[in-house]
Design brief:
Helix content is about 30%, strand content about 20%. By secondary structure, the chain is an alpha+beta fold.
């Protein structure tokens, strides 16, 4: 038999399994190379971040709310793991397809590169087609690697039939002569096929090592790009505010175990946004442009420009519209910043009540987020500000460094633009901001709410005096009264902590003489306008949840 006969490729389950492994390695290489290329473009252009951002933009509101309820501030991490899990399954599937149809499977990898490129260039913060490069280059490398690895499965020794036939011919060299086939390189499998095992293992190992190196290099380079921003934050020295916050009055912070602290530490302050990667903006290069309808004098400000302006310092409680009744997405902090109304007046802006043509202020973030606020509310005398400091420190990156908006009395999605870089004056009729396009209300004043912090749901306190305590908020109106009800009994007025300002939440407590058995504790608040928190339960969409918060406990 001719020693140059064509080798038979690996067949069956083993070929599919090795094809799946090849697909996984190709997908890993594509992601790693894309990470490396994104360092030369911008970190946000990587396919996982771009596809994740596109998924967030297109996810139905109900699903987003569910994710926030289930995973809290870890929702973005869960999304990224989910994307990687899906990509892993697709890579395995494409590898098995390539094991049978080599070219088709490889083209499938290229197709997903196109998806990543479209997602990257379609993001609101994308400014160049170069954002497509990481996905495209990564996909080309992944497709080429898959095609090459599958080819290694076709490199084998002689078919079994040939070897069997040749074994019937006496070897003139004698029975003790060894065959020339390299048994370490070519293997005969049970299904009668041969393949280049050693060559495949070497190729797969080399691909995995190179991909790991590329991924680590890309991660390191992307991380280094934020170092200038980190350094700029370290160099910030916040000037003393021209208008200081009054000292927190005695009695505003109750000493009760389990109650939320009156001032929320920065590390514990809630974070709800759409940014998969927290923007790290260099304060030395940051600019803010103010323009639009009714702006007589457009301005472009630097961070140093803001620090040279008169600063105000205020305690303000923020609340997220995604907060369910009794939820955790509310926090109180001491903010330092420039009064936004003063800055707008310097630009010639007038509120609608004084003849101004614009009724909406659209704030744009560096990541493309748009948030629309009523101009009337921003300029009605409340302490709306462009904040540069939080609890005595420059803003943390996760909370908007170098500059963010803070407007007391409005839910965050219509006021709290983080990483702000542009303010445009327009009208609600002319423009719908990000969340309004997704069925949220254009205007969203914070609703009067209260929450039981202690005892926790399903707690088992001992019979006797049990301290029931929590917080209530109605920013820019203030809390006038909090009441507690045990089971279906009468409402009992709780003891209110001393009020700091009407823009902060207010702690409360109630001494309950608990008796054995299962009980339901319910709370409601009344604000300074006389409006009592409604019992009617509504979801967060379109303008915030409503209803009474209650917990069930068992008294032992």
């Amino acid at each position: 038999m001719d020693d140059d006969a064509s080798p038979m490729p690996l067949r069956g389950i083993k070929r599919l399994s090795l094809g799946a492994l090849s697909g996984l390695l190709a997908g890993y290489a594509a992601i790693a190379v894309a990470e490396l290329v994104s360092a030369a473009v911008r970190p946000e252009s990587g396919p996982v971040i771009a596809v994740g951002g596109a998924a967030i933009d297109r996810t139905p509101t109900a699903v987003k709310d569910w994710a926030i309820r289930q995973f809290g501030t870890n929702d973005k991490l869960v999304l990224q793991f989910g994307i990687l899990a899906v990509l892993t399954l697709l890579a395995l599937a494409l590898g098995m397809v390539a094991a049978r149809w080599r070219l088709i499977g490889s083209l499938g990898v290229l197709a997903f590169g196109v998806v990543g490129a479209l997602a990257a260039t379609g993001r609101p913060d994308s400014t160049s087609v170069s954002d497509a490069l990481p996905s495209v280059v990564g996909a080309v490398v992944g497709a080429g690697l898959l095609y090459w690895l599958i080819g290694r499965l076709g490199h084998s020794g002689r078919p079994v039939q040939e070897q069997t036939a040749s074994s019937t011919v006496p070897d003139p060299a004698g029975p003790d002569t060894q065959p020339e086939d390299d048994a370490a390189t070519h293997t005969v499998d049970d299904d009668g096929s041969g393949w280049d095992r050693r060559g495949f293992i070497i190729a797969a190992t080399a691909a995995a090592a190179a991909s790991t190196g590329a991924g680590l290099a890309g991660r390191a380079l992307n991380g280094s790009q934020g170092q200038s921003a980190v350094a700029s934050r370290k160099d910030v020295v916040l000037p003393a505010p021209s208008s200081k916050a009054a000292p927190t009055p005695r009695g505003a912070a109750l000493r009760i175990n389990g109650i939320s602290p009156f001032m929320t530490p920065n590390d514990d302050f809630y974070r709800v946004d759409t940014a998969l990667v927290v923007p790290k903006v260099d304060a030395t290069t940051w600019k803010l442009r103010i323009h639009g309808e009714g702006v007589a004098r457009e301005r472009t400000l630097s961070f140093d420009d803001l620090l040279r302006m008169p600063l105000i310092e205020r305690n303000i409680t923020l609340t997220c519209v995604s907060n369910e009744v009794g939820g955790p997405y509310a926090g109180n902090a001491r903010w330092i910043g420039v009064r936004l109304a003063d800055l707008l007046r310097e630009c010639g802006v007038r509120p609608p009540s004084k003849g101004g043509p614009a009724d909406q202020l659209v704030a744009r973030s560096v990541d493309g987020m748009t948030i629309g606020s009523p101009v009337e509310d921003v300029m009605d005398g409340r302490d709306a500000m462009l904040a540069v400091g939080m609890n005595g420190q420059p803003l943390p990156f996760v909370h908007g460094f170098p500059v963010r908006m803070v407007v007391p009395g409005l839910f965050g999605y219509v006021s709290a633009c983080k990483w702000i870089q542009d303010i445009e004056l327009t009208t609600f009729d002319a423009y719908d901001s990000y969340w309004v396009k997704r069925d949220w209300a254009r205007r969203a004043p914070i609703k009067t709410q209260s929450r039981i912090d202690t005892p926790k749901p399903f707690a088992r306190p001992a019979a006797g005096t049990v301290m029931v305590a929590g917080v209530a908020w109605a920013q820019h109106r203030g809390i006038d009264k909090v009441e507690v009800r045990v089971d279906d009994g009468p409402w009992q007025e709780a003891r209110l902590a001393t009020e700091d300002t009407r823009d902060t939440w207010r702690q409360w407590s109630y001494e309950w003489q608990a008796t054995k058995g299962s009980h339901t504790l319910t709370v409601r608040a009344t604000d300074r306008t006389g409006e009592t928190q409604t019992e009617k339960r509504t979801p967060t969409v379109p303008d915030g949840a409503s209803g009474w918060h209650s917990v069930v406990v068992t008294v032992d």
